């Protein structure tokens, strides 16, 4: 069996709106996220980590942001498509660790549902998915409340 590690990062700015979608969970918020799709930074970072580990490029290569086919796309659909790409090449996700960086909204109340969503989409157990959050103590664009970023690390294994 071969193992590979991948890492991904994604950032989206806040815009007008009444919710954000993170880890496939719709969270009420006084802003939305500016994006071509649903702006789910957690799943976008995870997709990039998975694609990187399998040496398949990045999310923009497979789902170009200017392509109307992916306008308002549900990022859980994108995650499942990336999982199929990996499986086609003989890879599967072993586990994933995702960190959301934001001052608001609070992530902890939604982390368990995010774990369940991602695990279901990848055919894993929820304990194979880690969701955590941090703030930047008021520093940088996240600290100023201008947007959200996410970092993901994934271990994949060959079949």
Could you describe the 3D structure shown?
This protein has a five-stranded mixed beta sheet. A two-stranded antiparallel sheet has the order 2-3. It is an alpha+beta fold and 159 residues long. The chain has a single domain (3-158), classed as 2-C-methyl-D-erythritol 2,4-cyclodiphosphate synthase (60s Ribosomal Protein L30, Chain: A), CATH 3.30.1330. Helices cover 31% and strands 33% of the residues. It is built from five helices and seven strands, in the order E-E-E-E-H-H-H-E-H-E-H-E. The radius of gyration is 15 Å and the shape is globular. It has helices spanning 41-53, 59-62, 75-88, 108-122, 140-143; strands spanning 3-15, 19-22, 25-28, 32-33, 91-101, 129-134, 147-158.
Map the helices and strands:
Blueprint: E1 3-15, E2 19-22, E3 25-28, E4 32-33, H1 41-53, H2 59-62, H3 75-88, E5 91-101, H4 108-122, E6 129-134, H5 140-143, E7 147-158
Parallel strand pairs: 5-6
Antiparallel strand pairs: 1-4, 1-7, 2-3, 5-7
Helix pairs in contact: 1-3, 3-4
Q: What's the CATH C level? A: Alpha Beta
Oligomer: single chain
Report, as a whole number of angstroms, the end-to-end distance.
7 Å
- What fraction of residues sit in β-strands? 25-35%
Which descriptor suits the 3D outline? globular
């Amino acid at each position: 069996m071969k193992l590979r590690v991948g890492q991904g990062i994604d950032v989206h700015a806040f815009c007008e709106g009444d919710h954000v979608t993170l880890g496939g969970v719709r969270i009420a918020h006084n802003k939305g996220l500016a994006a071509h799709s649903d702006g789910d930074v957690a799943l976008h970072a995870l997709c990039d980590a998975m694609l990187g580990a399998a040496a398949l490029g990045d999310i923009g290569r497979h789902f170009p942001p200017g392509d109307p086919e992916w306008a308002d796309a549900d990022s859980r659909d994108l995650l499942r498509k990336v999982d199929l790409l990996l499986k086609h090449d003989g890879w599967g996700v072993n586990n994933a660790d995702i960190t959301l960086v934001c001052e608001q909204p609070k992530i902890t109340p939604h982390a368990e549902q995010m774990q369940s969503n991602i695990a279901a989409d990848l055919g894993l157990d929820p304990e194979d998915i880690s969701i955590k959050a941090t703030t930047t103590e008021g520093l940088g664009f996240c600290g100023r409340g201008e947007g959200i970023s996410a970092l993901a690390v994934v271990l994949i294994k060959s079949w």
